[in-house]
Every structure is written in structure tokens, then in C-alpha cells.
Specification:
Elements (H helix, E strand, L loop, with lengths): L10 H23 L8 E6 L9 H6 L3 E6 L3 E6 L3 E8 L2 E8 L3 E6 L4 E4 L36 E3 L7
């Protein structure tokens, strides 16, 4: 039985905001450097219907809830702001411009070093999640986003629930 009092400090929101800042800092380093260092590459999963997300209509129709993009060899115009990032990617040889607020990101994975961050939004805390199909933007390696961090090492999962 858990008799801990409800916190008046929103620790869950503070921690999630700080961890999402990690995503922004990493992408900002890539933007400043002009390319991905070494073998680093990223799988970024985000809520496609979240406020501020801007993706082509055919992608939002195909992925009405969530999609995973790959930032590896075929990306361009990476721009990182305080609250969002923009990137150009190719899907089935068709270029697309995406704008993704960090608040919409639900997972960030760098499989080259077995690092992953997972987030859960407050709206999703009570929902039952099923696996979504990765976006499969054009990538030459044939890696699947689902293959990253199989053993769970270096995975930080943020899953706070509130008493109501």
C-alpha cells in the first residue's frame, strides 16, 4: 500500500522536459557539426497529431498516431530550435520537410552506442499502446528501428503516472 502524499511539485514534467532537452542538444551538435559523427544515427519516434507537428499529408494519413524517422545518411536542412527541430527526409524517393516539437517526441534511439530515451505524455498515461509501424524513410543500412537497444542497456524510460 502506497501512502506517499501527492507531490505539489511536478517532478514528472520537470524530468521529461530535461530529458527532451538531451534530444535537442544532441541534434544541435549535429546541426553545428554539419553531419553525424562516426557511426551515430538516430531513430526518433513522435506523435504525428501533436500540437506543432508539421508533416506531409500522405505521411499523417499513413501514420495517424505515431511514426519513427531515421536520421542517418539521407537527411538535409536540419534546423534545431529551442522547442522543435526541422529536417528534410526522403520517403520512397519523395522529399519531405518535417517540423517536430520536442514535446511530441516519444522515443530517441542511437543504436550505434545502444542509447535510448523513452517518454510518455500525460495524455497517454492511461492509454493502452500497441506497436506502430516505423515510417521507413529511405535509409541504406536496412536496420529496423525496432532492433535498437534490445538488451535494455543504456535505456532511460520516463513513465510517471499521477494519482487522480
Amino acid at each position: 500500500m502506497n501512502d506517499a502524499p501527492d507531490s505539489l511539485i511536478p517532478y514528472d514534467e520537470i524530468v521529461q522536459e530535461a530529458l527532451r532537452a538531451v534530444v535537442g542538444r544532441v541534434l544541435g551538435e549535429v546541426e553545428r557539426g554539419g553531419c553525424l559523427p562516426g557511426e551515430h544515427h538516430f531513430y526518433i519516434t513522435f506523435k504525428t497529431a501533436a500540437a506543432g507537428v508539421s508533416i506531409p499529408r500522405h505521411l499523417s494519413e499513413r501514420f495517424p498516431d505515431e511514426m519513427t524517422i531515421v536520421i542517418q545518411n539521407r537527411y538535409w536542412d536540419l534546423k534545431v530550435g529551442k522547442d522543435q527541430f526541422e529536417v528534410g527526409l526522403s520517403f520512397n524517393q519523395m522529399p519531405a520537410h518535417l517540423v517536430i516539437p520536442f514535446a511530441a517526441v516519444t522515443a530517441f534511439v542511437d543504436p550505434s552506442v545502444n542509447f535510448a530515451l523513452q517518454f510518455q505524455s500525460h495524455e497517454d498515461a492511461d492509454e493502452d499502446h500497441t506497436l506502430h509501424v516505423p515510417a521507413e524513410n529511405d535509409t541504406p543500412t536496412g536496420e529496423s528501428p525496432g532492433e535498437a537497444a534490445e538488451d535494455g542497456s543504456n535505456v532511460v524510460s520516463v513513465d510517471f503516472t499521477r494519482k487522480k
